[in-house]
TrEMBL record, chain A:
Localization of this protein: Cell membrane
Major localization listed first in the record, in broad terms: membrane
Location of the ABC transmembrane type-1 domain: 67-282
Protein name: Sugar ABC transporter permease
GO CC list: plasma membrane
UniProtKB/TrEMBL annotation, chain B:
Its job: Part of a binding-protein-dependent transport system for a sugar.
Keywords: Signal, Transport
Gene3D superfamilies for this protein: Periplasmic binding protein-like II
InterPro entries per the UniProt record, alphabetical: Bact_solute-bd_prot1, SBP
Subcellular location: Periplasm
Signal peptide: 1-22
Protein name: Probable sugar-binding periplasmic protein
Family: Belongs to the bacterial solute-binding protein 1 family.
GO CC annotations, alphabetized: periplasmic space
The keyword Signal appears for this protein: yes
Length: 290, 414
């Protein structure tokens, strides 16, 4: 009896959460996939009708904008946040005084919600109230910084706010990575007279590869699910110039009564996530096996 | 002891008897949660209670009703619909097609709704010939509001054609005043667009384009002219309009920073709340052109079980279209009664103008549903048009491209 309990207790303890995940994650993914193949409008319908919703989705100029924005925003946000985070981490790694205080200052934006970040940057970037008006008030009459209201540039304001929010967090990740590198190797390199920048590029950074991957995964899922920042900062505007797939999905599902369209856009978003996560999982699992 | 049991039994019988008569009961889902709106709902609640009913309030705040519609969807899917729901326009018929709306024809016929409501508004309340919803008010959408002293100082009359509007706007611009206060949100772009479209296409053209979705009209040269006028209007708006709320635009007119605003009559509520008087501090007129674009709030009645709930539904429907409620509610809300036979003595001059225009338009066949406010088209089609309108207004797209995009977007939304 005791032996039976010993072998089965872990399974029984895990079973409820396993079933919950199975239903509420994978079950609902399957349900969304089903709905995306129907002509559902206000309420879900279950007669399969082929790929019509996907045809509509890819014919929609608004989806084009939203999907294109995802790549502009995602690429810039991930690359710049990682570079900036790394630079900050390396600078902080020089055993400077008051490091703790500086680290807190850089990390603090992460504690703000995206809504607060978005609202604050909306005021800062508003040409009539914020940066532009202030600098013009200082006497530089020709200064212009109106990206927020320029449909071609507005998506970059989202990038700015997102980087401001997240680069401190990336810095914290990298700083932990830098600190975990074996100091013996670094000291040996220093004894050999190798310049500091070479120590970083040849020894420290390559040994931090797993941290880069983690930072990349965290940032890319932040980018794909980005919703609140856009809502607070631009409301998807001007026009729909700063729409992202998540805001598109929300508009279709909750204000347009077009559930099939929302479901198909959600499925496409999920495929994008898969495209990033599956290779990651594959490499993780393979390294465990080998 | 025996008498005790006897009285207990008779007491039970009494309870049973009163249950059979059924006290009216209603659970009402609505999204009127702001100050003036909540006050208006309270009027209905009090009247409902005075007629012996029990009201269960289910207010869902936010998002122009998006959140309320999500709550409604969850309630309907779980088989537990509220008694009455604030719904409007073709959404009523969409819900009817899902098979969840109740028939309130008996109340409508007993109270002669066909005679007291304008025909096109009554049409929205019917589902395949039966009555399924009750109208509360009529908001006029195609209003142009103006700052009286700014117009006077610049020697400008309220414009009656779009050319006059353009000329006035240029004059104002030269004088350093923002001609048009506008908020850059998609629905506000759509509000201006439909007012311009009504003026340029005329009532028949508007109906063909935005009610019947007639492709010839949508691709016509007149439609291009509408987009051209929108491009001109874009030049009359300040550079900082993106994402601005409509009431901030109203405030710009109020304090003389801007001269005009094109917005529904809820803007009047803002002027009134700031203590401004119509005709003195601010002016109201219909936007250039004929016709009347309405946005009618209504309550749709859902299928419910139980005599008490059905009684509540009927009482609610009767009260909503009742003369007293229509007057008091609309005085609070700034709109006008949907009934044409309510005395307008207590209403201000803008509301009186609105009511007389509504009656005239109803007779002349130019009383038209607003597409921008979800009265003319279903969500997917209206959304497709709004996407195009806002994309054009916020870029340098040509009118030709806009018209082609509009036609494609509508076809894609079917």
């Amino acid at each position: 009896m005791l032996k039976w309990l010993e072998t089965h207790t872990p399974k029984m303890v895990l079973a409820p959460s396993f079933i919950a995940v199975l239903i509420f994650v994978y079950g609902f993914i399957a349900w969304t996939g089903w709905v995306s193949l129907t002509r559902s409008r206000l309420l879900p319908k279950y007669e399969i009708d082929g790929l019509i919703q996907y045809d509509r989705l890819f014919a929609s100029p608004r989806w084009d904008t939203a999907f294109g924005n995802l790549f502009i925003f995602g690429a810039l946000f991930i690359v710049i946040a990682m570079v900036l985070g790394l630079v900050l981490a390396i600078l902080l790694d020089q055993n400077i005084r008051t490091e703790g205080a500086l680290r807190t200052i850089y990390l603090y934006p992460m504690a703000l919600s995206m809504i607060v970040t978005g609202t604050a940057w909306k005021w800062i970037l508003n040409p009539g109230l914020g940066l532009e008006a202030t600098v013009q008030g200082w006497g530089f009459e020709t200064f212009s910084f109106d990206w927020l209201v320029d449909p071609d540039m507005a998506i970059y304001t989202v990038v700015i706010a997102a980087i401001w929010q997240s680069s401190g967090f990336v810095m914290a990740l990298f700083l932990a990575g830098l600190r975990s590198v074996d100091t013996e190797i670094i000291r040996a390199a220093q004894v050999d007279g190798i310049p500091t920048w070479r120590v970083y590029t040849a020894i420290i950074l390559p040994s931090m590869a797993p941290i880069f991957l983690s930072a990349f995964i965290v940032l890319s899922h932040l980018a794909i699910k980005s919703f609140d920042l856009v809502i607070a900062l631009t409301g998807g505007g001007p026009g729909y110039a700063t729409d992202l797939p998540a805001t598109y999905m929300y508009a279709m599902a909750f204000s347009r009564g077009d559930l099939g369209q929302a479901a198909s856009s959600a499925m496409v978003m999920m495929l994008v996530v898969f495209a990033i996560v599956v290779p990651y999982l594959y490499s993780e699992l393979r390294s465990k096996d080998g | 002891m025996k008498t005790y049991i006897l009285s207990a039994v008779s007491g039970l019988a009494l309870v049973a008897a009163s249950a059979a008569i059924a006290d009216p009961e209603a659970e009402v889902l609505h999204y009127w949660t702001s100050g003036g709106e909540a006050k208006s709902v309270a009027v209905l609640q009090e009247e409902f209670a005075a007629n012996g009913g029990t009201w269960t309030d289910m207010p869902v705040a936010g998002g122009g009703g998006d959140a309320a519609m999500t709550a409604l969807r969850a309630r309907v899917l779980s088989g537990n619909a509220p008694t009455a729901v604030q719904l409007k326009g073709p959404a009523i018929q969409e819900w009817y097609e899902e098979g969840v709306l109740a028939d309130i024809s008996s109340v409508a016929e007993a109270n002669n709704w066909d005679a007291v409501l304008p025909a096109s508004i009554a049409g929205h309340m019917k589902c395949e010939g039966t009555w399924c919803a009750a109208p509360v008010n009529v908001h006029r959408v195609d209003w142009i509001w103006a700052n009286a002293s700014v117009l006077e100082a610049n020697g400008i009359e309220m414009p009656t054609t779009w050319d006059e509007f353009n000329a006035a706007a240029e004059k104002l611009q030269a004088a350093g005043i923002i001609p048009l206060a506008h908020g850059g949100q998609a629905w506000q772009d759509a509000t201006v667009f439909e007012a311009v479209a009504l003026g340029i296409l005329g009532p028949d053209g508007y109906r063909k384009a935005f009610v019947d979705l007639d492709m010839d009209t949508i691709k016509s040269d007149e439609m291009k002219a509408v987009f051209d006028q929108m491009r001109t209007m874009r030049g009359f708006v300040d550079d900082n309009f993106s994402g601005r709320d409509w009431n901030l635009a109203t405030a710009m007119v109020m304090n003389g920073e801007a001269a005009f605003q094109i917005m529904g009559d809820w803007a009047k509520g803002e002027f009134m709340a700031a203590g401004k008087a119509p005709g003195e501090d601010f002016l109201c007129a219909s936007t250039p052109g004929d016709g009347f674009l309405y946005n009618v709030d209504s309550f749709a009645m859902f299928n419910v079980d139980g005599e008490d709930k059905k009684a509540g539904q009927e009482l609610l429907a009767k009260l909503v279209v009742g003369e007293n409620f229509q007057e008091v509610f609309n005085l609070n809300k700034g709109s006008i009664p949907a009934r044409t036979d309510v005395s307008l003595d207590a209403f201000d001059q803008c509301a009186t103008l609105s009511a007389s225009d509504m009656n005239a338009s109803s007779e002349g066949g130019s009383l038209l549903p607003s597409y921008a406010h979800g009265m003319a088209l279903r969500g997917a089609q209206a959304g497709a048009i709004t996407d195009t309108v806002t994309a054009h207004f916020n870029s340098d797209m040509s009118a030709d491209d806009a018209v082609n995009m509009l036609a494609d977007a509508i076809a894609n939304s079917m």
